[in-house]
Specification:
heterodimer, A: alpha+beta, Protein Transport Mog1p, Chain A, 2 domains, seven-stranded antiparallel sheet, 6 helices, 25% strand, B: mainly alpha
Chain lengths: 328, 166
């Protein structure tokens, strides 16, 4: 059997029993609603402001002609703002116009559509890789809702994020979010007092890669390719620290036994690539809460562990952890 | 989103989710639950853009989101896996009856995320080099070299095992 066939066979066997979970459709729609709701709240405030401005205009356009029910009258869709006021004969119950769906269109396509529908266009940008750059990622108000002519519709246009840590070793620059850290031992308000001998700063650092406010950098043996690490540390603060605390609880729930490091409870275990599972063959990791609202995680690369041995790896991780302190 | 869109999305889920989940498990080399979460968030993105993409190969879009999500997730974790090509076989930790499949999967897990993704796309999804390159946003040359390196490592593993059992 050649290697391609063997691999194909092994992969097929590995996932043969995997089936999609039931009720996935509902779960996805629920998640999507959560996403939309956040937008909707912001959108509501915006529409309110637009209507408040819009009302006097409508009143001067046709005083006393507003039909029962308090529905706004206004220029027809496509009407030129500032054109002659609508006469009484023209008064129709226009319960606002239905906001068109612009998600996925380019900003250049979206603006004329909105203008033609009688809206004012506002553009904001969001840095995301969830939509192609230059396309509309979100809009306020939501498509399908109604908004009076003249209201401002904000389109949120996706902007490509700055590329994250290198594609492969050596062919992309490493991020330098925190600038020159000197010896690399102080980041996120935390100082690393001890590092295994022979390691030097990896000359990169990233901010918020592990949630908002998180800081990370690494130390490596001299001569490793850029992007390789021997020891990596992540400091969690704010929301990221809250998420981290939940993960710590998850480790405990999976049976990880806490150890004591400098009087604090820490977990020393092998962690999956996702960072939330305790598994054999994962990355050797020590994780603990340094101070209220400050979580720290230190991991050792599998190659460095096999180089110094399992026992030494655990010893070193504990010593690194004991040496970590809030930066004064 | 019209009712017809919604119905078509449900059909898409029913037809494609299992395949996407399997690919995600292989690419991220992680547990089914890690992968499930990733597939769910990828499918949420598909859902959000569904009216636009439903007639334009939504499966390819979903696969791209899943694979790239798996890679960046793996990479976030270990900045970059160290690549040691001359890895000595660790025969001591493996019992002789440890199946070939398990050994290959273990070796696959040890590969850097993108190299693993290349192998999964090429040999599990049966995608061509050009398709793989397009999905990963890299050159065909990169796909070739990553596949060759990855296969070489898996092959070395296989041979060392055959040597032991012989």
């Amino acid at each position: 059997m050649n290697v391609e066939e063997a691999l194909r066979d092994a992969m097929a066997a590995q996932v043969a029993d995997v089936q999609a979970p039931p009720m996935l459709g509902q779960a996805i729609r629920r998640r999507n609603r959560r996403h939309v709701v956040r937008f909707r709240l912001a959108g509501a405030a915006l529409v309110t402001a637009a209507v408040a401005v819009g009302v006097p205009v409508a009143l001067t356009a046709g005083p006393g002609t507003a039909p029962a029910g308090g529905v706004l009258t206004g220029t027809n869709a496509g009407g030129t703002p500032g054109a002659s006021p609508i006469g009484a004969d023209d008064t129709v119950a226009v319960p606002g116009i239905i906001v068109p769906d612009l998600i996925g269109k380019t900003a250049a396509e979206a603006s004329p559509i909105l203008k033609e529908a009688g809206y004012t266009v506002r553009v904001t940008e969001i840095t995301t890789d969830e939509a192609p750059a230059g396309t509309v990622y979100g809009q306020m108000p939501q498509p399908g809702t109604t908004a009076p002519a003249g209201a401002a519709v904000t389109i949120v246009v996706a902007v490509a994020p700055i590329p994250s840590p290198g594609a492969t070793a050596g062919d992309a620059p490493m991020p330098q979010d925190l600038g020159n850290l000197g010896d690399g031992r102080t980041l996120g308000g935390v100082h690393v007092g001890y590092l295994p001998e022979g390691l030097e700063w990896g000359k990169w650092s990233a901010k918020d890669g592990f949630g908002t406010r998180s800081y990370t950098t690494s130390w490596a043996k001299p001569g490793l390719e850029p992007g390789m690490y021997s020891v990596q540390m992540i400091v969690y603060r704010k929301q990221a620290a809250e998420d981290f605390a939940k993960r710590l609880k998850g480790f405990a729930a999976q049976g990880a036994k806490p150890i004591e490091v400098d009087g604090k409870k820490a977990y020393l275990m092998n962690v999956s690539e996702g960072g939330d599972r305790v598994i054999d063959g994962g990355t050797r990791t020590i994780a603990w809460t340094l101070a209220p609202g400050v979580g720290v995680e230190v991991m050792m690369s599998p190659d460095y562990v096999s180089e110094i041995g399992d026992a030494a790896a655990d010893r070193e991780l504990k010593k690194i952890a004991a040496g970590v302190a809030l930066d004064k | 989103m019209t009712e017809e869109d919604e119905a078509a999305f449900d059909e898409f889920l029913a037809a494609r989710t299992t395949a996407l989940l399997r690919t995600a498990i292989l690419v991220c080399g992680a547990s089914a639950s890690d992968a499930e979460d990733m597939v769910q968030s990828a499918l949420e993105k598909v859902y959000r853009h569904w009216p636009r993409i439903r007639h334009d190969n939504p499966e390819a879009y979903a696969r791209r989101v899943v694979v790239n999500g798996a890679i960046s997730r793996a990479r976030r974790r270990r900045v970059l896996q160290e690549i040691t090509f001359a890895q000595p076989p660790e025969t001591s930790v493996e019992s002789p009856d440890f199946g070939l499949r398990d050994v290959l999967i273990a070796e696959l897990r040890r590969l850097p995320a993108r190299m693993r993704a290349v192998l999964v796309l090429r040999y599990w999804e049966d995608m061509s080099e050009a398709e793989t390159a397009a999905l990963l946003g890299c050159s065909v040359g990169t796909v070739k070299s990553q596949a060759a390196r990855g296969l070489a490592r898996v092959r070395a593993r296989m041979e060392s095992l055959e040597g032991v059992s012989a």
